[in-house]
Amino acid sequence: MTDLHRDTLRVAETLLTFAKEDGFVLRRAVSSAYYALFQGLCAVVAESMSRSTSVTSEYRRAFRALDHRQCRNSLNQSAEFKNDLGVPFAELQDIRQWADYSVTPHPDDLIARTGASFNHGQAHFYYRKAHIAIYYLDGLDLAQKARLMVTLVVKERS
Amino acid sequence: MTTQLMSNRDQRARDVMEAVIRDALQSPAPESIYFSAHDNHSGEPSLYVYITMPEERFIPDIEARNRLSGALLTALQSLDDDRFPYVYYGPREAFQQLGQIRVGE
After folding, report:
1. B40 CA to chain A: closest CA distance, Å?
2. In angstroms, rounded to a whole number, what is the distance separating the alpha carbons of residues B70 and B20?
3. B87: nearest Cα among B69, B101, B60
4. Which residues, given as ranges, of chain B have pLDDT below 70?
5. Global ipTM
6. Contact (CB<8Å) A108/B88
7. In terms of C-beta density within 10 A (0-12 exposed, 13-18 middle, 19 or more buried), how is residue B99 classed?
8. CA dihedral defined by A104, A129, B37, B102, rounded to 10 degrees?
């Protein structure tokens, strides 16, 4: 696997280290945490499809095979990958959607109405979710990676 | 005070989610569980659960939370309900103000 996802996760960690209670920086941190996990999934798919860990032309093409929406749905319909990847992916995707596009102070509307803002502890929680999910990805053996690739890429036929 | 009315579909989802949560969290049990159904930031219909634990130290770790959310997804899929359940945990103080916003009625 290439290291793009680890580099992106380090960006999230660096932002959290310096953010304190800076809302804008916390938003960028959780957005980076989401992209780190997405890129980790892209790397697994690229490695499994191209049968290569180096950046060949096939690897590059396969790295771009994933669609964000299909990723979320496929992982959460998978008995094998739902808990360790599907749940954190969906939660990180939603927090990224809030971080990048919403003007409300908290990702949950009801909590926002109490006047609470998204804080450092909550941002760190999402960073840890991404970190644990990436650790899980890095520990998959070849057979598990192949099953994950099929889960993510191959559409069900009715 | 805001009250959000639940449809029959929401109530079925709430009942099955409450059973899963109470089965998973037994020692100690949650003090209270709030439910709400509203769109997430992608504009998709979603389910929200706010679990009040007696103290912060009783809040499950991330892996346990993922397992519980996975179990909630499975239970909802058995109802043909594909909404994603977002679960928040906190000690009583964290949701004190939320109690003023009535949810899940």
Report:
1. 7
2. 10
3. B69
4. 1-5, 99, 101-105
5. 0.84
6. yes
7. middle
8. -70
Confidence of residue A158 (pLDDT cuts 50, 70, 90): low
Q: Which residues contact B47 (CB under 8 A, 6 or more apart)?
A: B10, B13, B17, B35, B36, B37, B76, B83, B84, B85, B86
Strand B45-53, strand B32-39: pairing: antiparallel
DSSP E strand boundaries for chain B: 32-39, 45-53, 84-91
What CA–CA distances, in Å, run from A75 to A23, B27, B49, B78, B87? 30, 30, 21, 17, 18
- Report the percentage of chain A scoring pLDDT > 90: 76
Taking only the tens place, the pLDDT of each residue in A58-103 is: 999 999 999 999 999 999 999 999 999 999 999 999 999 999 999 8
A7 pLDDT exceeds 90? yes
Q: What are phi and psi of B36, to 5 degrees?
A: -150, 150
How far off is chain A from B66, nearest CA to CA, in Å?
5
Asked if A2 contacts A43 with a C-beta cutoff of 8 angstroms, the reply is: yes
Mutate to test the interface with B, among A108, A118, A119, A135 (most CBs of B within 10 A): A108
pLDDT exceeds cutoff 70 at A145: yes
Predicted pLDDT at B7: 87
Question: What pairing do the DSSP bridges indicate for beta strands B32-39 and B84-91?
Answer: unpaired
Give the residue from A24, A129, A73 showing the smallest Cα distance to B62: A129
Average pLDDT, chain B: 87
Residue A92 to residue A72: CA distance in whole angstroms: 10
